[in-house]
């Protein structure tokens, strides 16, 4: 009934447990690996024993770049082509935890479908994009080092915009559509530049017509929505713009699924099935009682397994 698309991360230790919980009750699991991952003998042995299939055509994945979305779109295409038995698709991280039994999730989806709700995509509401006034032909050569796993460069004219983390496009989502982003996956680099006058005019018209939304990347989509996302001209056009917007993994599905012309918009709920709507939480044994008494969520992110022996034991009993 459900196809679970797992997105790769360096930590394989919990994969057997996670895949074992997911690959039950008629569900299927697909693994989408980052091409940068080194598959040593230990990782290959883990993969060989998993009740899951590897999604072909892996490519390097860069934090907050277009490759994050391309990874999921490729997984959706593979799932549609390889199996006709699933009705819903959910994307999860290797580090996620299933905090309610899969049969409960299936019952929830059936009950929701009876109310004409078949997609779950959390967003913070429509935002009015902000466009920096500068137009510059300079190369994106000024380095901004925020993370160890990606190198970020901006045009010198933009360095003040990126000087403060919270006031930058990372912290302020409305600033993201106002810049043009290029990703070099092989080098794990992101490069920002200002828009040309023509690009700015096109983007303003695009977002005025369809709106710009952002939220969390963890979604549950009905097969009909998945088919629309990978085959419709409208979704393709949205992606042509969004692939050059910073943090596209938190905006493409929100912008597409809630677009006024999306045929499945009325079937889409503004919520996530992850704890705290998919916001990263440092979960450990201190969360156990809250989870046992019901949070309304089915998945949780960022479990600190080293500090969660009691939580691990409880999850094994689900």
Quick take:
The chain has 318 residues and is of the alpha/beta class. The protein has helices at residues 15-22, 41-48, 66-82, 102-114, 197-210, 223-231, 233-242, 252-257, 288-292, 309-316; strands at 2-7, 28-32, 53-54, 88-93, 97-98, 119-120, 123-127, 142-144, 151-154, 179-184, 189-194, 212-215, 220-222, 268-269, 299-300. It has 10 helices and 15 strands.
Textual characterization of the structure:
- This protein is of the alpha/beta class and 318 residues long.
- It has a single domain, classed as Spore Coat Polysaccharide Biosynthesis Protein SpsA, Chain A (Alpha-Beta Complex), CATH 3.90.550.
- 31% of the residues lie in helices and 18% in strands.
- It has helices at residues 15-22, 41-48, 66-82, 102-114, 197-210, 223-231, 233-242, 252-257, 288-292, 309-316, and strands at residues 2-7, 28-32, 53-54, 88-93, 97-98, 119-120, 123-127, 142-144, 151-154, 179-184, 189-194, 212-215, 220-222, 268-269, 299-300.
- A five-stranded mixed sheet has the order 3-2-1-4-13. A four-stranded mixed sheet has the order 8-9-11-10, with no helix packed on it.
């Amino acid at each position: 009934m459900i196809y679970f698309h797992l997105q790769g991360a360096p930590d394989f230790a919990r994969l057997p447990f996670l895949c074992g919980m997911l690959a039950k009750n008629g569900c299927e699991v697909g693994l989408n690996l980052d091409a940068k991952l080194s598959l040593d003998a230990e990782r290959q042995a883990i993969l060989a024993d998993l009740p899951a299939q590897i999604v072909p055509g892996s490519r390097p994945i860069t934090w907050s770049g277009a490759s994050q979305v391309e990874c999921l779109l490729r997984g959706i295409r593979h799932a549609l082509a390889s199996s006709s038995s699933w009705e819903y698709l959910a994307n999860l991280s290797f580090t996620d935890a299933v905090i309610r039994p899969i049969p409960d999730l299936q019952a929830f989806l059936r009950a929701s479908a009876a109310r004409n709700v078949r997609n779950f995509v959390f967003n913070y509401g429509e935002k009015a994009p902000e466009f920096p006034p500068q137009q510059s032909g300079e190369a994106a050569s000024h380095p901004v080092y925020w993370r160890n796993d990606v190198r970020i460069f901006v045009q010198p004219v933009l360095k003040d915009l990126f000087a403060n983390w919270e006031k930058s496009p990372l912290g302020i989502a409305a600033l993201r559509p106002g810049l043009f982003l290029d990703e070099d996956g092989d080098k794990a680099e992101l490069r920002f530049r200002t828009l040309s006058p023509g690009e700015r005019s096109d983007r303003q018209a695009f977002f005025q017509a369809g709106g710009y939304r952002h939220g969390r990347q963890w979604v549950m989509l009905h097969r009909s929505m998945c088919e629309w996302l990978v085959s419709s001209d409208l979704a393709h056009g949205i992606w042509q713009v969004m692939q050059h917007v910073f943090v596209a993994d938190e905006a493409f599905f929100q912008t597409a699924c809630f677009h006024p012309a999306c045929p499945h918009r009325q079937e889409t709920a503004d919520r996530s099935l992850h704890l705290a709507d998919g916001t990263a939480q440092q979960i450990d044994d201190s969360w156990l009682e809250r989870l046992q008494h019901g949070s309304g969520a089915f998945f949780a992110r960022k479990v600190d397994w080293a500090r969660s022996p009691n939580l691990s034991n409880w999850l094994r009993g689900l």
